[in-house]
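seq as requested:
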Amino acid sequence: MAAPGMHVGQYLHKNCRLLLANLEQLWSTRTFIGISAVRQQSVGVAKESPEQIVIPRKKVWSKEAVLETLASTVRRDPTAYPYQFQDDPYLAPRNFAEFKLYSLSQESGRSAAKYFINNYPKFFTKDFAEPHIPCLMPDTVSLRIDEVSEEALKERISLRKVKAAVDMYDQLLQAGTSVSMETTHDLLDLICLFCDRDPVQEEGPKMEDTESAGEVRKRKGRFRRSSDFLRLTWRDHNNAERIFNLLPEKDARCYSALIRGMVKHGAYTKAFSMYTDLLNNRLTADVHIFNALLSAAPQVRDKYIERWDLITEILNQMSQQKVQPNLQTFNSVLKALRRCGSLAKTLALQTLSEMKALRIVPSLATFDHILAIFYKPGMSGQVKSNILQEIMLVLEGKPFTCQDPDDVLFFSSAMRVCLDYKDLELAYKVQSVVEVGENWRLLGDYYQQKIYYSRFFNLLCMMEHIDVVLKWYRELIPSLFYPRYEDMRDLLQALDTDSRLDMLPAIWKDIRNFGQDNKSELIEELLTLMARDEHSPEVQESFAVCALDVKSVFEGNTRRPSVEWSTPTLTHITCLLLRANKIQEAWEMMQLFKSNNRVPSEELFEDFLCVCKREGSAQRAVELVQLSAAFCLQGTPSLVKRTLADFDLSEDQRAILSELEIVTQTAE
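struct tokens:
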């Protein structure tokens, strides 16, 4: 009820203000998707007309609001398979080789499905989805316009059919039909982007078009990445140049398409000639032309100072033509400075200062170029620079989006610097930036992500306490990357450094799961650590079980190809079995020495004889002496004397030993 003397409108107006204030306080304590935009709109209206309150009649939610809200309440499960393999856990890869096979199989399946959807769309009439995701919808690749017209040309350009678009353009010219400048721009962009060839769809271009015969032989049998298919060479007098020369009027956009295409496909000198032609026609270049020329500058000059002089000249012309630089401009300059030797460090700092003066915010690619300039491979012994520390102070706690194709290289380069300088604190700072928001997406593809986490894990194994190492081991492997042979070896060395060898059997299970049980060096490293010292009976029992599992790998009882026995491997396994009082299994290992033409050490025979004495196994002791004589070991007479003195032997056993003693003395 309104207070006495207060108008009803004033009463409502006051309470609306209180309601809005309460809503503002409520919204500030909870997180709703899209609510800040509504609040800003309300505040803006209030500023314009402070006496008018506009309350939205309806709040429009995005279709993904519920999914995004639910996703924000959970974290990544380190024990789960990577998300791309969760459809079929049975076939989920256990190691990098299986990952590559699985990934190629998935991509092959997608290509097959896309082929049928695109070529037989009449069988797939249901194209609705909720929410609608355009990139997951079938692409229309069949041509629908057959007559010669500009609309048909636009259709071929939109479908990225380069040859068909060029043919249609020629037909239009022959028919006397003029083509609009906008469509001509799009056509030139298409031709220059794909280097006058149709883009690769289900199969790559012919090898002879992209690589020489020697390169083919080098790459035979090696996995080829998709980027390899794009290494095309700009050909003289191609369709782009022909169409460009046929144009009655050429504007800066036409020059921009050709210059950028020439730079992209390696025709650097022709690109600068085309830029000179542009200036002669009294045209003004755009920022994209200058960015392309800056990236091509190191390719047309040999000396460092000449390269920088050319870069300076391009920047001066950019200033004279009043073209405003952007982020790509400075990134191109820094990328070119990476090939300017000793001049680069001073000039790179000047470039950063210029960016700051123009209020251009650097991207991760900017800092990656800075790292490449200041940190060269093999510099770890020199005076350490503080560049990376200063970069991390700028990046700390900030989310990033991809603004440059080279943004995905920064984190891997930063972790390489941390590893070279053994700077664990700095590595943690880099990892903390990766964990902010969705910065992990800027780690790049799986191969780059693998390099980053492998470097981080290597540094942890060298510098961190083993409990922290094991924590990160469970967090990173295998949900984020599959370890290499070197990664598991580093982990074994970390366990040895902190005297946690009791964890070796568990690590061996992981080694088998990761498909690295065919690495002889890794197996020998594991067995050496287990057999080096004696431990408690419980630990020795677990070591013996692990040794028997290793034995099964060498015998080829698994899917993986068996590895060859070595003398240290046979010795370590036998020693581990003896320490666990597994005499029969140890005796079988002694027989393997003979069948694999390996000679056991005399110390191993002495240890075996001690176990036989402790167990009271006289017959096994006699057989052991016979085996030593068969290997013609110099310690056989000593074994005979110990066996005769320490064991309760039968007459037949004593006769056998006496005969062996005579034979060995005669041989000496």
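Residues 82 and 480 are 7 Å apart (CA to CA).
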